[in-house]
C-alpha cells in the first residue's frame, strides 16, 4: 500500500469508528437502548448506561463484559432530577469530565383515551419522555463541550408526527423532543455539539409488546400501513443512532430522522394498487 493510500484508509477508518470516545445511553438494559449500547460499544466507544432494575442491568453488564465491550452501568430513574444529577456526576468521574455522546433513549407510554388521563399520569409521562432528555442534556452540556466533539441523539417516535388512538400525551411529549433537538442543535453548534433525533415506528421491544397487549389487530393495522410491510428490529434503529454519532456524520445536526419502514410517507393509495396503463 502506498503512503497516500495508507493515509486515506486510516482517515476513512477514523470517520467510521468511535474508538476512544465516551457515551452515556439511558435505558440500556432492554429494547432499543440495549441495541444502542451494543452498537456504540462495538464501534469502540466506552459506554455507561442506566436503568431502574438493578438485577437486569447487572445481567447485561456481565454479558457485555463477556463480549469484550467496555460498558459500565448504574441504577437511575431518569424521571427524577436528583437521580439525573447523580448519574451525570458518576459519568463525569468515570470519563474524566468529558463525554462525546449522550443518547436520551428512555421513554414510556400509558395507554388511555385522552380524557381519562389524570394530572399524575401527565406528570409521569412528561418527566419520563421530555424532562429527562432535556435535563440530562443541560447537565451533560459542560462534559459534551469539554470533549470538543459532542453528539446528542434523542429517541422520539412516529407518534410525534402522526396521531394514534392511544398515547396523546406521549405523542405530544415526543413532538416537543423533536423541537427541543432543533433548538439545542442551534444553541450548541458553537460548542461543536451536534443534536439529532431518531423517530422509530413499531420496533420489536418489550415496550411495544406492552403497548399492543390485547390489541393484536393494532399490530396488523400498523404493519398494513407500513410500506416495508413489517415491524422493525432494535438494531435497525441503533444503526441510525450510531451513524449520527460517528465523525462521518460531522455535518448532520438539527435533524429528525424517521426509522419507520416508510410509515410517515405512506402514500395516497396504500398498499399501492396495480393500475391498468392508460
Ligand atoms: N418499541 C417501539 O415500538 C418504539 C416506537 C417508537 C419509539 N420508541 C421509543 O424508543 C425508546 C426505547 O423504547 P423501547 O421500546 O426500547 O422500550 P423498552 O423495551 O421498555 O426498554 C426501555 C429501557 O429503558 C429503561 N427505563 C424505562 N424507564 C426508565 C426510567 N424512568 N429511568 C431509567 N431507565 C428507564 C428500561 O429498564 P427499567 O424498566 O428496568 O428501568 C429499559 O432498559 C423510547 O423512548 C420509546 O418511546 C419505541
From TrEMBL:
Spans through the membrane: none
Q: Which domain of life is it from?
A: Eukaryota
Span of the secretion signal?
none
| Keywords, ordered alphabetically | NADP, Oxidoreductase
Query: Can the keyword Repeat be found in this entry's annotation?
Result: no
PANTHER family given for it?
NADP-DEPENDENT MANNITOL DEHYDROGENASE, TROPINONE REDUCTASE
Say which family it is in.
Answer: Belongs to the short-chain dehydrogenases/reductases (SDR) family. SDR65C subfamily.
Q: What is this protein called?
A: Uncharacterized protein
Give the organism's phylogenetic lineage: Eukaryota, Viridiplantae, Streptophyta, Embryophyta, Tracheophyta
Amino acid at each position: 500500500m502506498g503512503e497516500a493510500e495508507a493515509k486515506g484508509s486510516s482517515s476513512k477508518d477514523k470517520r467510521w469508528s468511535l474508538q476512544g470516545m465516551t457515551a452515556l445511553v439511558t435505558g440500556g438494559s432492554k429494547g432499543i437502548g440495549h441495541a444502542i449500547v451494543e452498537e456504540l460499544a462495538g464501534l469502540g466507544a466506552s459506554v455507561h448506561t442506566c436503568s431502574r432494575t438493578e438485577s437486569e442491568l447487572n445481567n447485561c453488564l456481565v454479558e457485555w463484559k463477556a463480549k469484550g465491550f467496555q460498558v459500565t452501568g448504574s441504577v437511575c430513574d431518569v424521571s427524577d432530577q436528583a437521580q439525573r444529577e447523580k448519574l451525570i456526576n458518576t459519568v463525569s468521574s468515570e470519563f474524566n469530565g468529558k463525554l462525546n455522546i449522550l443518547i436520551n433513549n428512555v421513554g414510556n407510554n400509558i395507554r388511555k383515551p385522552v380524557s381519562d388521563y389524570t394530572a399524575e399520569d401527565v406528570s409521569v409521562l412528561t418527566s419520563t419522555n421530555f424532562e429527562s432528555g432535556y435535563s440530562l442534556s443541560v447537565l451533560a452540556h459542560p462534559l459534551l463541550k469539554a470533549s470538543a466533539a459532542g453528539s446528542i441523539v434523542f429517541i422520539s417516535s412516529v407518534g410525534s408526527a402522526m396521531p394514534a388512538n392511544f398515547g396523546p400525551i406521549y405523542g405530544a411529549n415526543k413532538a416537543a423532543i423533536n423541537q427541543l433537538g432543533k433548538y439545542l442543535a442551534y444553541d450548541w453548534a458553537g460548542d461543536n455539539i451536534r443534536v439529532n433525533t431518531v423517530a422509530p415506528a413499531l420496533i420489536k421491544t418489550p415496550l411495544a409488546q406492552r403497548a399492543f397487549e390485547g390489541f393484536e389487530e393494532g399490530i396488523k393495522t400498523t404493519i398494513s400501513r407500513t410500506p416495508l410491510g413489517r415491524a422493525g428490529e432494535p438494531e435497525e434503529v441503533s444503526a441510525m443512532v450510531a451513524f449520527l454519532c460517528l465523525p462521518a456524520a460531522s455535518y448532520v445536526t438539527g435533524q429528525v430522522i424517521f426509522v419507520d419502514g416508510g410509515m410517515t410517507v405512506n402514500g395516497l393509495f396504500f398498499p399501492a394498487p396495480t393500475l391498468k396503463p392508460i
